[in-house]
Write a structure and sequence with these properties.
486 residues; alpha/beta; Nucleotidyltransferase, domain 5; 7-stranded mixed sheet; 19 helices; 24 strands; 39% helix
């Protein structure tokens, strides 16, 4: 048995996988985000560990025999978060998350001071990344910055709790803006931009390598065997790729979770920062990938659910599906920039909005508009990937939004690509983490990283394309028209 632990933004998800590729069980525990000021997004690392214990407790209760047979553990997690530890490994302050946008001016400063930064780091400097957060901290919370002895990424804090080791993997490290992506090593040039040195960084391993072993203290707490191998793991997107078997050049997936990501494996390092895409290390050694990222994807529907007091996101989706073609053509347009945007705009200041509201606008129209706006935002991202040299014919759809037929069909139509879903789509990161644990225990990459069975295939619909394209063209005109106002 192999255990995958996926630390998301809204939930910790755990998964049990056997060596016949069967997922025997999953469990989860919710997380909350703190937003103390506009543009700030934080979580307490201690809450991650509590939620992990809670989720594993449920998994152990549901599958006691399989749980006791766990041979290796893999980790996956939300990228870019800054977990700051002092010399005693105590947390200095709440972790600043990937969707925290307070460090926009620091990004511009870093780009000015080191123009070659995008070529080294694989991306433009963006507020979501880890390095600008530390530069902000040095300016605005200098006393806290002075205490920092180690900087970890979110999933690597869980590793510290499990193994006592300060370690990260190449894929997650790629999202810090401290890694030389082509060399797969920390860059002293990039670290200098934030006043840090090599001693502040965790040790680097590949995602499928052993990073440490479960301590007796953690084993007793979790009901597992002491000494179990813990793999390097991966950032959430690279882990999802492992779960989908996307390890060869041209393989790809679309993640429709809190954020929205288009991910394509590349044969080598192919940076193209001009299109606001990312070129990062894959979780498998000597492989890279390109990625476009939108900051508010399925979370946009979560936001609307809370805003109007709807019963659930599923209930809202059902209302959206009831909107007729005629009503869709006149529905409001929604810009899904609730937390700013990365690809293709790289704009931390822009915010979401509805356009063309009327007295006829009802809840169903708003629900449809939000889902359509997310589809259009992801279409922008895929266009950027194509301009960076990627070619895509089929994508696996993963994340919570993969449960929606409406979204899957819209995406197939707008991206002009076959969209496929899988039984394990909603657990992509946790599945990938478990697979990396499996490889770390001695299995071959090709044996483990197979493509899961397809449950449904969605093809581009010409009639839907004819309906959506005029709306998409209006959608594309809204951002440049509003940018200067914001």
């Amino acid at each position: 048995m192999f255990l995958g632990i996926d630390l998301g933004t809204s939930e910790v998800k755990v998964l049990l996988l056997d060596d016949a590729h069967q997922v025997l069980g999953t469990a989860g525990a919710p997380l909350e985000i703190s937003r103390p000021h506009p543009g700030h997004s934080e979580q307490a690392p201690a809450d991650w560990w509590k939620a992990t214990q809670s989720a594993l407790g449920r998994l152990r209760q549901q599958h006691p025999i399989a749980y006791a047979a766990v041979k290796a553990i893999g980790l996956s997690g939300q990228m870019h978060g800054a977990v700051l530890l002092d010399s005693d490994d105590s947390v200095v302050r709440p972790a600043m998350l990937w969707n925290d946008t307070r460090s926009a001016s620091e990004c511009m400063e870093m780009m000015t001071e080191l123009p070659e930064l995008p070529q080294i780091a694989g991306s433009l400097a963006m507020p979501g990344f880890t390095a600008p957060k530390l530069r902000w901290l040095a300016k605005h919370e200098s006393a806290q910055f002075a205490k920092v002895a180690k900087v970890l990424l979110p999933k690597d804090y869980l590793r510290l709790m499990l193994t006592g080791e300060h370690v990260t993997d190449m894929s997650d490290a790629s999202g810090t803006m401290w890694l030389d992506i082509s060399k797969r090593a920390w860059s002293s040039q990039l670290l200098a931009l934030t006043g840090l040195q090599m001693r502040h960084m965790p040790r680097l391993v590949e995602g499928h390598e052993v990073s440490g072993s479960l301590t007796s203290e953690a084993a007793n707490l979790l009901g597992l065997k002491s000494g179990i191998a813990v793999a390097g793991g991966a950032g959430d997107n690279a882990a999802s790729a492992i779960g989908m078997g996307a390890i060869h050049a041209g393989d790809g997936f679309l993640s429709l979770g809190t954020s929205g990501v288009a991910f394509v494996v590349t044969p080598n390092y192919l940076p193209n920062a001009a299109s606001a895409t990312h070129a990062f290390c894959h979780a498998i050694s000597n492989r890279w990938h390109q990625m476009s990222v939108m900051l508010s994807a399925a979370s946009s529907l979560q936001w609307l659910t809370r805003l109007i007091g709807a019963e659930s996101e599923a209930a809202l989706e059902a209302k959206a599906k009831s909107v007729t073609e005629t009503q869709r053509a006149s529905a409001p347009l929604f810009l899904p920039y609730l937390s700013g945007e990365r690809t293709p705009h790289n704009d931390a200041a822009i915010r979401g909005s509805f356009h063309e509201l009327s007295h006829d606008t009802d809840v169903a129209a708003l629900a449809y508009s939000v889902m359509e706006g997310v589809t259009f935002g992801l279409t922008d991202g895929l266009r950027a990937l194509k301009s960076a040299g990627s070619s895509i014919k089929r994508l696996s759809l993963v994340g919570g939004g993969a449960r929606s037929d409406l979204w899957a069909q819209q995406l197939a139509t707008m991206l002009d690509a076959e969209m496929v879903t899988h039984d394990s789509s909603a657990a992509g990161g946790a599945l990938g983490a478990a697979r990396l644990g499996w490889i770390a225990s001695g299995a071959s990459i090709e044996t483990v990283c197979t493509a899961p069975g397809i449950t449904r295939t969605y093809h581009p619909d010409p009639a839907e394309h004819a309906l959506l394209m005029p709306r998409y063209e209006r959608f594309r005109k809204l951002y440049p028209a509003l940018r200067d106002i914001h």
